[in-house]
Amino acid sequence: MASTSRPAEEGGSADKANNTADYDALFKGSLRGLLQWAQFEALWARLRAAPDGWYVRDFKARGIPEQPLSSQAFLQFLDEAEDFLRKRHREEYCGFIYLDDLEHPSFIKVFDPRKMGSACGCGGAVQPRWTISRQLPRLADDGGDTGGRNRKDTEGGSSGGGWLRRLFGG
Fold this sequence. Notes:
Elements: H1 12-28, E1 32-36, H2 37-49, E2 55-58, H3 71-88, E3 93-99, E4 107-110, E5 130-133, H4 151-154, H5 162-167
Antiparallel strand pairs: 1-3, 2-5, 3-4, 4-5
């Protein structure tokens, strides 16, 4: 989704830095998972009831949003994301959405149900498909947020290898 320039905020760069630090702490912190579709539906209903002020970071797109989505754009995102998730996961259970607070969420990780990683953890960190947050998102850092590619890949180096490259020092 396209983003526009971020307007000036009260408090200036210190507020922006704190907002970004909050995102980092939540991204790397402990979250609660939704296991049932009924929990997902209740969460989506809460989000639809308060559509203002949400940042949506799409990990398949380059860059990060500079401002929250408009209410209309956020509601459209929720519809499209729900359609995507239901098509990708036709099971009775959920298990691919994690959030900071079940009743009053401010940070949500939504994973692609078909790209949750392996049980052995050999493929490295699995990044979410989207984050939905009240906090300004950040670009990748050393937290494994590289889209399933190693750091050389994201810096223009050779691609491929993944865990084998790390294992054999490539």
